[in-house]
Design the sequence.
C-alpha cells in the first residue's frame, strides 16, 4: 500500500519567507509525528498528533513553528520568517495505535529545506 | 523526560567483521526500545524493537539487540557485517503507554568491501 508521502521533496527559500511542508500519512494511522534531521544532530522531535487529542508541541523550537492536522489525516508544518538555522530535512512519520499496536513508525522521504 | 545516547558517531568496519553499536537511555520506568536504519537514499525503517519478554531481540538482516535493564542499554549487534549494511543507525526509546519517541543522534556505519 501507499506509504507516507511528503511534499515538496526540496524547498529553497529566502531568509524571512514563510514555508509550508505537507505530510500525507498512511491511511488509518492515527498518530503523526514531525521531526527535524540536521547534520550530526540526529532526529529532533518537533510535534506529535494522536487522533483528536491536543497535539504534543513540546519539541517546537520557537513560535515561528506551527503545525496542524486536518481531519485526522494530512498535516502541514509551517515555518514563519525562516532563518538559516532552519535548514534541515524535515521528516514526517505515522503509526497505528490502539491495543496491541507496536507503535512502529513509518517514515516519509522528508523535505529538504534550504534557507538562503 | 527520556534521552538516548549513541556513543559511536562513525564506525568503519571491513566486511565479515562483527558489529556492536552502543545505545544507552535515561529513564527509570518501563520503556519500549527501537533501532531504526536509514540506508543511503532511502527512508528510515524499523530494524527491530523491544517491548517485553525475551531481552534478546532478533531483527531483519541478521541484526539483534539485547536489552540490559540494569545498564539502561540496548546495544545493536551483528556477527558478520556486509557492504550492504552501510547505513546510519538510530536508537530510539519511548515510555511505555506513550507514543512519543526520542531518537539518538545516530551512528554512521561504513563497511569496506
Sequence:
Amino acid at each position: 500500500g501507499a506509504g507516507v508521502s511528503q511534499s515538496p521533496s526540496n524547498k529553497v527559500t529566502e531568509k524571512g519567507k514563510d514555508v509550508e511542508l505537507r505530510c500525507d500519512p498512511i491511511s488509518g494511522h492515527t498518530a503523526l509525528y514531525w521531526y527535524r534531521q540536521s547534520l550530526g544532530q540526529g532526529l529532533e522531535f518537533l510535534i506529535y498528533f494522536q487522533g483528536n487529542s491536543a497535539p504534543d508541541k513540546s519539541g517546537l523550537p520557537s513560535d515561528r513553528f506551527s503545525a496542524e492536522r486536518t481531519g485526522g489525516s494530512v498535516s502541514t508544518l509551517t515555518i514563519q520568517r525562516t532563518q538559516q538555522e532552519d535548514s534541515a530535512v524535515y521528516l514526517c512519520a505515522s503509526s497505528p495505535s490502539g491495543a496491541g499496536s507496536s507503535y512502529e513508525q513509518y517514515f516519509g522521504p522528508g523535505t529538504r529545506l534550504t534557507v538562503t | 523526560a527520556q534521552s538516548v545516547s549513541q556513543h559511536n558517531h562513525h564506525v568503519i568496519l571491513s566486511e565479515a567483521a562483527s558489529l556492536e553499536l552502543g545505545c544507552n537511555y535515561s529513564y527509570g520506568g518501563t520503556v519500549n526500545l527501537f533501532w531504526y536504519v536509514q540506508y543511503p537514499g532511502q527512508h528510515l525503517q524499523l530494524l527491530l524493537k523491544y517491548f517485553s519478554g525475551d531481552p534478546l531481540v532478533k531483527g531483519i538482516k541478521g541484526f539483534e539487540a539485547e536489552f540490559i535493564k540494569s545498564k539502561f542499554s540496548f546495544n545493536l549487534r551483528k556477527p558478520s557485517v556486509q557492504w550492504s549494511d552501510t547505513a546510519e543507525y538510530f536508537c530510539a526509546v519511548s515510555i511505555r503507554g506513550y507514543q512519543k519517541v526520542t531518537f539518538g543522534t545516530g551512528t554512521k556505519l561504513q563497511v569496506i568491501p
